[in-house]
Design goal:
Elements lengths: L2 H16 L5 H9 L2 E6 L7 H16 L4 E6 L10 H6 L5 E4 L24 H10 L2 H9 L4 E9 L4 E3 L13 E3 L3 H8 L3 E2 L7 H7 L4 E2 L4 H6 L8 E4 L7 E8 H5 L3 H35 L3 E4 L2 H18 L3 H16 L4
Parallel strand pairs: 1-2, 1-3, 6-7, 6-8, 9-11
Antiparallel strand pairs: 3-10, 4-10, 5-8, 5-9
Helix pairs in contact: 1-11, 3-11, 6-13, 7-12, 12-13
C-alpha cells in the first residue's frame, strides 16, 4: 500500500465516522467514468453473510461517489465455488469472497489466514494479528504469485461443532469420524479424528446417515437454518477447530492496480466496517439461535477452558507440522508470539 493510499484510508475512515455523505472527489471521478466489477461470494442468496456482502458493495459505491460499482453474486452463480480462485486469477470476474482454508492444501500459508484451531479465542485477537502484527502483508504475499491481491479479511467468532454423540472433553474426539477442512483437518486428525473434508452441502446428509459423528459447517444461525438440529443432538462450544474465523476479499491484481488510490482505500475501509458489523450481528444472533437449538432438543455442551488451554499447547505441534514452507512458518511463528504475549500460551 502506497503512502498516498494510506492517507486515503485514513481520510475515508474519518469521513465514514463524520458523515455518510458522498465524497466530493468521488463525485468528480464518477463524472469521468465508472469502474464496474463483479464479485462472487461463497454464500447462498438471501443468507445473512450474503446480505453483508451486498452491504459491502453498497458501501464501496458510497465511499467512491459511485466511481466503483461492485455487483455481488452468490456462491456458484458465475462459476462453481471451487473454480472461483482460477476464475478471478484469469480475469473472468474481478473479485471473490473466499475462505483461505479451501486453498491451504496448495498454499500452506492459507491454513493460518483462515482460522487457527485451538488458537485465538476472541475475534478481536485474530483481527489484531492481521492489522497490528503484519498479517495483512503476509497474506498478500501468499496471493501475489497467483496474480491476486488480498484486500482484507472479514473476521468473526467461533463456528460450533455438531455431534451425534456427546463430546465433553477434548479426549472424547479420539476415534470419532468428522468433517473438517483447511488447517482444522490436520489439527483435528492429530487429536484422533478420522477426518473427511466433505463439501459444506454434504454435512447434513453425512450426519443424518451416520457417515460422520461430528462436523464443522458454519455459524450457529446458519447451521440452525440448515436444519442440523434434526441430525445432531449435541452442539459443542467453543468450536475449538475454528475458534475465530477469517473470510477474504481477494481481487484480480491487474484490476486492482487499475483503481485509483481513493478506490483502493474505499475497499479497505468498507471491508473493515463490514468485518465489525457482521461480527456483531453474529454475536447477537448466537444467543437467539442457541435457544432455538435447545428448544429443538439439542444439548449444548461447554468444554472446560482448562482442557482447551492444555490442548492449545499440544496444538502448537500440529501448527508447526502444517507450516511447510518459509511463509507459512513465518505466519505461524508471528501468531504464536502474539498468543504468548496475550498469555494464551
Amino acid at each position: 500500500m502506497t503512502n498516498s493510499t494510506r492517507r486515503n484510508v485514513l481520510r475515508l475512515g474519518a469521513a465514514a465516522l463524520a458523515t455518510p455523505a458522498v465524497l466530493a472527489s468521488g463525485t468528480a471521478a464518477r463524472a469521468q467514468g465508472v469502474t464496474k466489477w463483479r464479485m462472487q461470494a461463497l454464500w447462498g442468496g438471501g443468507t445473512t453473510p450474503m446480505i453483508f456482502e451486498e452491504k459491502f458493495c453498497a458501501r464501496v459505491a458510497e465511499l467512491t461517489g459511485g466511481s466503483l460499482e461492485i455487483t455481488p453474486f452468490a456462491g456458484g452463480q458465475i462459476v462453481p465455488s471451487a473454480q472461483a480462485f482460477d476464475a478471478v486469477r484469469g480475469g473472468a470476474f474481478e473479485m471473490m469472497k473466499t475462505y483461505d482454508g479451501y486453498t491451504a492444501g496448495k498454499i500452506p500459508a492459507h491454513g493460518f489466514s483462515s482460522t487457527v484451531p485451538f488458537g485465538f479465542p476472541e475475534a478481536d485477537q485474530y483481527e489484531a494479528w492481521f492489522y497490528e502484527r503484519g498479517g495483512l502483508d503476509m497474506v498478500r504475499e501468499s496471493y501475489a504469485p497467483a496474480g491476486l491481491t488480498y484486500v482484507a479479511p472479514t473476521v468473526y467468532g467461533e463456528e460450533p461443532i455438531h455431534s451425534r454423540v456427546p463430546v465433553r472433553t477434548i479426549a472424547d474426539f479420539d476415534g470419532l469420524k468428522g468433517r473438517f477442512v483447511g488447517l482444522a483437518s490436520a489439527v483435528m486428525a492429530d487429536f484422533g479424528v478420522q477426518v473427511s473434508p466433505l463439501p459444506t452441502s454434504e454435512v447434513y446428509s453425512a450426519l443424518d446417515k451416520g457417515l460422520i459423528d461430528v462436523a464443522d459447517r458454519g455459524d450457529i444461525k446458519a447451521n440452525y437454518e440448515e436444519g442440523l438440529h434434526e441430525v445432531a443432538k449435541y452442539l459443542i462450544l467453543p468450536g475449538v477447530h475454528q475458534p475465530t474465523t477469517a473470510t477474504s476479499y481477494v481481487a484480480n491484481t491487474r484490476a486492482f492496480e487499475a483503481l485509483d488510490d481513493q478506490q483502493k482505500a474505499a475497499l479497505a475501509v468498507a471491508a473493515r466496517e463490514i468485518s465489525g458489523a457482521l461480527r456483531q450481528d453474529i454475536l447477537v444472533a448466537n444467543g437467539e439461535y442457541l435457544k432455538k437449538f435447545q428448544d429443538a432438543g439439542v444439548e449444548i455442551i461447554d468444554l472446560d477452558p482448562e482442557d482447551i488451554a492444555q490442548a492449545r499447547a499440544k496444538a502448537v505441534e500440529s501448527w508447526k507440522k502444517a507450516a511447510t514452507d518459509e511463509l507459512s512458518t513465518r505466519m505461524m511463528e508471528s501468531q504464536v508470539a502474539l498468543m504468548q504475549e496475550l498469555r494464551l500460551l
